What we know:
Blueprint: H1 2-8, H2 12-43, H3 49-97, H4 101-107, H5 109-151, H6 153-160, H7 162-200, H8 202-207, H9 211-237, H10 239-263, H11 269-310, E1 330-337, E2 346-353, E3 358-363, H12 369-376, E4 384-389, E5 392-393, H13 399-403, E6 406-410, H14 420-425, H15 432-441, H16 467-480, E7 485-489, H17 497-510, E8 515-519, H18 523-526, E9 531-536, E10 539-544, H19 546-552, H20 554-564
Parallel strand pairs: 3-8, 3-9, 6-7, 7-8
Antiparallel strand pairs: 1-2, 1-4, 4-5, 9-10
Amino acid sequence: MRRILEFLRPCAGRMGLGFVIKFIGTIGELWLPWILTYMINNVVPQGRLGLIFLWGGLMVFCSAVCVAANITANRMASAVARDTTRAVRHSLYERIAYLSCAQIDKVGIPSLISRLTTDTYNVHQMVGMIQRLGVRAPIMLVGGILMTLTLDVPSTLVLLATVPLIGVSVTYVSMKGIPLFQKLQASIDALVRIVRENITGARVIKALSRGDYEIERFGRQNKATSGNEVRANVVMGMGHPIMNVLLNAGMVAVILLGARRVNAGHMEPGTIVAFLSYFTIIAGAMMGLTRLFVIFSRSSASANRIAEILDMPADLTVAGEEAAESPWHVEFDDVCFSYNKRGSAVEHISFRLRRGESLGIIGATGSGKTTIINLLMRFYDADSGAVRINGRDVRTIDEETLHTMFGVAFQSDAVFSDTVRENITLGRDIAQAEIDRAVENAQADFISTLEDGQQAHLNAQGTNLSGGQRQRLLIARALAGNPDILILDDSSSALDYRTDANLRLALQKNYGGVTSILIASRVSSIAHCTQIIVMDEGRVIGQGTHEELLKTCPVYADIARTQMGGGLSA
């Protein structure tokens, strides 16, 4: 909740003005029953019509002031809630964008989506409600009690006897409700995860006829989420009937006591009317406070989840270290890494590349090929060993400088719902000539056949492109920024052999000074590389040129023989 208050600080002036306006409107509401009581007890018995109209006009004026003040204050409260939530959502999104891959893995993408949507909405409700009910209800409660004290002290004491009981019940219910709402938000995270998986994997689900299974899986989680919500709302809903019972019991006691005091001549009939009005006001204020506690309980859980992300420290800090003279452009020195710190993803990886050289990586699925790329780009830090670029440990290079060195194309990389050109540039300031050059070398000539060329609009994830077209678009994106290091992570798997060969020739001819790292499942895609490493279960089982590996690495030779019918010359 402390972090939310920081976002409210810039709106303190507007909130203060809104509180003042709300205070004026609320005070006006408190005076209406008192004016009515005065008219019944003092003005009406005189029988002077003009005086009745005068006091009636005063009630109309107070009512108009109340309506205008409340509407104005509520509009200001809504504006503050809107601006605060927008700032919270922007800061949360910005923080998520800079989370490390390890932190994203720890929290989970569905949870991040839920915090950015559901949790910020809950905060929006809380900020708006605090400015409305949070000001009005306490003033109505305290003011109503003070006004009744001016009318009749004994009846007021009967009324006050219910307040401590109500306060205890509301506090107890709120303490029980907050943990339940935290559990509910965790259930929503799981529900979002299932929905996200079903939407992104819709084609696989349809192809394997797993629709019924996924519907059942969603139904189970939806039922669990609904159950958690029902339990939380039932607990929080207990406050309303408890309060109604106590308030109605107090009202009955006040009426009985008032009737006896009127008969005894200690109280006038108009005072009973005023007491009932003030009792209604006090009851409404207590109900408003209960509603506020419900919203606060839910929102405090959401605020804590938001603060958890905002306060998450950067785990990939930049260490100060001078670059050492080195002939190597890219260097892995006995690198070991584990994603969960229990089982190793890669072990004792070592290789060196000079500027302009190329490295091919091949191996079975899950052998650690992509992990090497993740460590080179410092998506994760190595557990031991060192990863260096130009003799400088990647942990000493700031993130922006490091990532601008790379041009990367992953096999399942993102294609955004935007034009072809924007999908290539991704907001980078790249000249049209460089874009055209990248498109040509990536063999993405299909772009010129589209109706609007580079201005053609693509669907999210490139669903209006074929697999090969999508991969060539991603390669063009990687080449467009003239990178120092080009990484193609199995990004030519959907290309036919001829297109793949033309791509390799274009890279050799036009990007000779770029250090390349190619991950591939086909020997033909990496046979030309200066150096090739063969991965198996996180270890290097073969390292050398294509010809050397055909002789020294049985696994590589077997792959080449299976794919090419007996080997391939560089």
